[in-house]
Every structure is written in C-alpha cells, then in structure tokens.
Amino acid sequence: MLSGADILIRSLQEENVEHVFGYPGGAVLHIYDALFKQNRINHFLVRHEQAATHMADGYARATGRAGCVLVTSGPGATNAITGIATAYMDSIPMVVISGQVQSHLIGTDSFQETDMIGISRPIVKHSFMIKAATEIPSAVKKAFYIATSGRPGPVVIDIPKDITNPSDLVPYEYPKDLKMRSYMPATKGHSGQIKKAVNMIMAAQRPMIYAGGGVIQGNGCEKLVELTRTLGFPITNTLMGLGAYPGTDKQFLGMLGMHGTLEANNAMHHCDLLLAIGARFDDRITNTVSKFCPQAKIIHVDVDPASISKTVIADVPIVGPVEWVLSEMIDIVGQVIDQRARGHAEMLASWWEQIEVWRSQNCLEVKTDTTGAIIKPQQVIQALYKFTKGDAVVTSDVGQHQMFAALYYPFDKPRKWINSGGLGTMGFGLPSAMGVQIAFPEEQVVCVTGEGSIQMNIQELSTCAQYGLPIKIINLNNRALGMVKQWQDMQYEGRHSHSYMESLPNFVALVEAYGHVGKQVTNIDELDSAMEEALAIKDKLVFLDVLVDPEEHVYPMHVAPDGSMRDMWLSKGVRT
Amino acid sequence: MRRIISVLLENESGALSRVIGLFAQRGYNIETLTVAPTDDDTLSRLTLTTIASDEQSEQIIKQLNKLIEVVRLVDLTDGEYVERELMLIKVKATGSQRAEVKRTSDIFRGQIVDVSAANYTIQLTGTSRKLDAFVNAISEFTVTEVVRSGVSGLSRGEKALAL
Ligand SMILES: Cc1ncc(C[n+]2csc(CCOP(=O)(O)OP(=O)(O)O)c2C)c(N)n1
Ligand SMILES: [Mg+2]
Questions:
Q1: I need a surface site. Which of A141, A247, B16, B25 has the fewest CB within 10 A?
Q2: Which residues form the ACT domain (chain B) (predicted)?
C-alpha cells in the first residue's frame, strides 16, 4: 500500500526517469515530499517553470528519451505552457506532471486553480486527469508510451492534491504491458508504395532529397546517409533536420527554406523528383505553395499520416517510421541500382553540374568589415566552429543569431543542433542547453543567443550556478531585436518600431553576479583568442558578450509574398 | 460538400472536448453534432456534419484519427448511408390555423406530440433536408421554437462501424 505521491514517484522510476525538472508549490507538496524521500530520481530546481519545460525538452532532443517536468497548479502550470507548445510544435517527447487543486475544489475558482487540461489541450499529444491514486500507474505508463511513440509529443498528467495525500494508501502495481485499442502508431510502411517510390527514384533526372526533424526523431539518420550515398543524390535538411545528414558532406546542399542556401532552394525548385522524409512542408520552407516545386513528383515519408498532403499533395504517400521505410528502400534500391537505365548516370551528372554552378555563387560568403574592426555575426559562428572543431552541441534562441548558427555551423551528426524551429520560442536557448548539459556532462554545450532572447530566461543563470553547469553562452549582441529589425528594414522602409534593445544590462557584471565568468568582445582582433579561452574553461559557465555589427541581415532570404523557392534576396538590395 | 462523420469515441471525460477543440483549433466548421453512449458503455458514438472540400475532409479525418480517444471513424458520405434527424417544433395554432397546421404536419408525416389552447408541438424525423423543407413550409405560421437533434446515420448494407 502506497500513497498517490509515492505511487507517482515509483511509476516514474519504473519508466527509468533519471531527471525531473520542476518547481514546487502547494498542489505538489506531497509529491515533492515523496521525491525527498528517495534517491533514484534527481530533481533540478529551476527559477521559472518555462525553463523547466525547455530543460526537459533539451534533454529529450539530445537523448531521444522523454523529458519529465513537475510543476504546481495555477501559475506553475500556466508558466509551463510556452515550453509545452514549443515541444509540441517540434514533436518532442515530454511528460509534464502538474498539480491540481483538491478534487472537491475543482470548478470553484479556488486558490491557484486553473483548467490545465483545457489550457494545454491544443498543444499536447494527449493528457490525463487523474481521479484516483490507483489510476496513476497506468496513466504514467501510457503517458510515456504516447509521448515517445509514433510522432512524439508532450503529454500532460494533471493530479489533484488530495490524490497524492500521504495518509491515503492504496495498493500499488505497475502494469507490465499496455493495451490501447485507440492508439496504434504505424510500425511499418506500405511495401507496394515503397516499391513504387523506388521506381520513381530510379527514373528521376533531377532528384532531390529533403529531410527534416522526423529523421532525427525517428532515429533514421544512418539509413538516410546510406540511401543518399548509394543514390548519389543531392540532399538538403530543414532547420529541424540539421545534422541528420553530415553538413560537411559534398552531397549536402545546406539548409533550405526562407533562409536556405541558393543551391538548396534552387535544387528544390528545379527538381523533377522530391523525396521528402520526416519533413512537413512548413510555410517557412515552401514559400508560395502554388509555386512550390513546379516540376516535381513528390514522395513523402512520414510517421504521421496527417502530415502527408496537408499543404503539398504527395504523389506517393508513405506512412511509416522513417527508419523502417528507409531500410526497405535501401534494400530495394540495392537490388535495382545496377540496372539503372543507361544514360542515367549522365543525367545525374548534368544535374550535379547545374547544382555546382549555383553552389559556386558562394551565397554564404561573409563580407567582412573593410575597416577591419567590426565583428560580423557570421564570423563569431565561424570562430565557434573552428574552436569546437564542429563537435559541440549547439542550442540557440530565436532570431538572426539562430539563422547564422544554422547556416555557418555545419553539423555532421544528429542531436547536436537544438533549437525551437516550429514555435520559434525566444528564451529556449539557455534552458535547453542546461537540459543537454545535464544529459551529457562531458559534452561541450554552447548556447548561441541574442541580447533579446537571453533576457527571456536569464534567471536560469542562477540554476546553472546551483548545479555547476559549464555551458558556454555566445551572445551575438547587436543591440537590437535583429530579426524584427531586418523585416522592418526590408518591408517597412526602415521604421524600427520597438525593435531596439535599449538599456541593456552590463552582461559581464550580470553573469559575474551569478558567480560565472563573463567577457565582452568588441573588436575582431580579440575574437579568436576570446573564443578559444572561453571554450577552454571546462568547469565554469562562460558568457561571451560579442558586440556584432547591428546592421547585418541574414541572407539568403526568400522573396515574399508571392515568391517561389528560387526567389531570394542574396544581400541588401540584390536578388536572384 | 456536406460530410457526415461518425466516430466511436472512448467514453471518457474530456474526449468530447478534444474533438470539438480540434475543429475550433484548425478552423473546421461543425454544422451539427450529436453524441451519446452506445450499447457498449465504454464507447460513445459521435456523429457530426461538416461542410468541407475533399482535401479538407481528408485532413479532418486524419486529425480526428490522431486523437488518442478516437477508436474508429467513418465518413458515411463516402458510401451509401441512411441519415435521420429529429426535430421538435412549436407552432402557434388558433382558430382555422389549427387544421392547416395539422394538415401540413400530416403531409410531412409529422406527429403532434403536445397540444395547448394556442400551440401545437410537432415531432418530425427524416433527413436534414426534409426537416428544412418542413420548416420552410410551416413558416407561414408563427413558429415559436425549433429544436433539432443533429444528424445520426449508419452505412447501408453490411458495412458497420464497430470494434
Ligand atoms: C517569445 C517570443 N517573442 C517574440 C518573438 C518574435 N521575434 C522573433 S526574432 C526576435 C528578435 C530576437 O532578438 P535577439 O534575441 O536579440 O536576436 P537577433 O535577431 O538580434 O539575433 C523577435 C522579437 C519570438 N520569436 N519569441
Ligand atoms: Mg539582438
């Protein structure tokens, strides 16, 4: 016989939860007491519940396992919402346990009551309202299964306080297996469809592979590399998919989409066959949908049927886990590749010739400052790449700095690039880096941020101090909400309505106040040495406040509205 | 096109709100909605009608299927089906109108289920179009109240939405 609180903790242990990220409050005090009395699960105390969700999220993205969050009712629960939505948009497995007021008080507007199930409903994969302590084990088991299987996502478990009461003991048994008649995610793809797809792949003259975050979530990266190399096709990754295919490989054309490379976007536009894998044709990819890939037949592989033909109609839809489908494709391709139509190699070669012409335009070339003093934000990322040898786990916030990191730090491995692509949540960078560092204490974890974004969760510097997390924070300080300002430059004749960051703190003094190391870099001459030194400090959090050119824009950039994928701005006033 | 989507749903609290929330969240419209438990008390059956293009209805069905509590569903309008809706309608009927209202009701095979000095309450079942036609026909009299159940339906023949 156990109390509901003990049952919850035991159930989490059954699910091999190592870490819980959370913040206490009235409705979860019984649960916190149960946590106190055990030592298998670590708890990390944040300074704001939003950060707890992003930490769990970073942990999940880096490890592939579900992150676990514990918050109290009312404001604790509502503070978690942004992080739940962030995880939902990027299909990240997460289980969020929220306290609720006592059962008999529900619906009476009692102290710290909020309808968490209702508020979170549109941004969760599923949720459970617990009505009796005996329901906890099966709810926890289902929650972790749902969060991590199929297309992953966050699951909320809302538990009224009385149900965790230490004096109400009920029998405890953790279910061994789990039956859900209404939830059966696809475990295989349709072989007929896969054969059909391979036939089209073998006949394509200008093929293109477009792979997204689903390949990483679905652990299909090795298979993706194998298939792509076997076929010799060009490949691009989405912002969420960076690292799914090695960023430094010849066949990789860089990221695609709104800020994609000239070669990736052009190859997309001109291809006659598009193999889309674990990607969802987001509006930041397609530009004007009616002008998207005008000549292409589209094969779309995704574990979520609802992602297929949602915005762009697929000619060959394949529902199934990417890893499984890719393995099957590799098998079939292996059987037929030698019988490829004569002349096919030449066709592919001329397609590559065309691509090399685009690539030779070197769209990411950095125009360095002629006076030789001003630091371009791209140079900071290049220095970071150089001194981490391209092997750090990089998290980012949202804005220009995020795009610079995505474009100038090629990732050769999956789960090394952690960013909020779907929701675009400023404030994600630092707490997600904390989650990664906790998962991998030995890894070099770097947060690339902006002076706007970092201030959305800067309180977590305190949490970093408490747990000794030696994250490196690279602040691309352009004294502006740069991405907003860029749009105002381009679309509002430079009227910078509220996009300046006035009264910035002295970041160095601020991080030092938290007990960390801070350094400001203002001149290009100091950049390399400052970067090298910062990264060499292994046991401390270092905050590098780099004053970068405030006038810099991110290019390429899709021409919008009404542009196609190949319509891009390449630099200020210069377009394709 | 008008669609009739019939859904077997886990009979759990909160399940219905997920279905309705989905429609609101994704901007799909609901014309009618009915829901009640079935012979199996772990399930409820929900029938809704919506106006949607082919692509939209494909998305609606896929999104509904993604809801964990949706066990199985069918778009009845994909095949042959029977549909029924129930309507109760209260009409002012005094003097010579009483006979006329009764006659109109008889033509539509309505039943008068309540009578007062100045009113008839008529019950009518049929397809939504038939009910619309009746509302139209009766509108020359004074209608005080209309309540409709929303559409229920089943596939014709052997096909069945069951576990
Ligand atoms: C929470 C949140 N609020 C607003 C936005 C809109 N937004 C996108 S980028 C951006 C500017 C970010 O500024 P900063 O962090 O300094 O990055 P920069 O673009 O200057 O590199 C804003 C306000 C957002 N993405 N997230
Ligand atoms: Mg900025």
A1: B25
A2: 4-79
Chain A residue with CA closest to B43: the answer is: A182
Does the Cβ of A426 fall within 6 Å of ligand 1? yes
Instruction: Please report, as a single letter, which amino acid is at residue B143.
Output: V
Number of residues that this document lists for chain A: 576
Structural domain spans, chain B: 1-78, 80-152
A144 annotated active-site: no
Q: Which CATH number fits domain B80-152: 3.30.70.1150, 3.40.50.2300, 3.30.360.10, 3.40.50.1370?
A: 3.30.70.1150
The answer on pLDDT for A158 being more than 90 is: yes
Burial A1-22 (b: 16+ CB within 10 A, else e): ebbbbbbbbbbbeebebebbbb
Dist. CA A467–CA A488, nearest whole Å: 41
Q: What is the pLDDT of residue A179?
A: 87
Specify which residues A12 forms β-bridges with: none
Q: How far is B162 from chain A (nearest CA, A)?
A: 12
Rounded to whole angstroms, how far apart are CA atoms A279 and A240?
9
Across B27-50, average pLDDT: 96
The predicted pLDDT at position A342 comes to 72
Taking domain B1-78, whether its CATH number is 3.30.70.260 is answered by: yes
Whole-number pLDDT of residue A340? 79
Residues of B within an 8 Å Cβ radius of A = 10, 13-14, 17-18, 21, 25, 55, 58-59, 62-63, 65-66, 68-72, 163
According to DSSP, residue A361 is labeled: T
Mean pLDDT over B118-142 rounds to: 97
pTM: 0.97
Rounded Cα distance between A206 and A270, Å, is 7
Tokens of A439: 């998962």
pLDDT of residue A416: 98
Dist CA B43 CA A107 (whole Å):
26
Let me know if the fold of B1-78 is the same as that of B80-152.
yes
Mutate to test the pocket of ligand 1, among A404, A484, A502 (most ligand atoms within 8 A of CB): A484
Contacts with B, A 295-314, CB within 8 Å: 304-306, 309-310, 313
Rounded to whole angstroms, the maximal C-alpha distance in chain A is 78
DSSP three-state, residue A397: coil
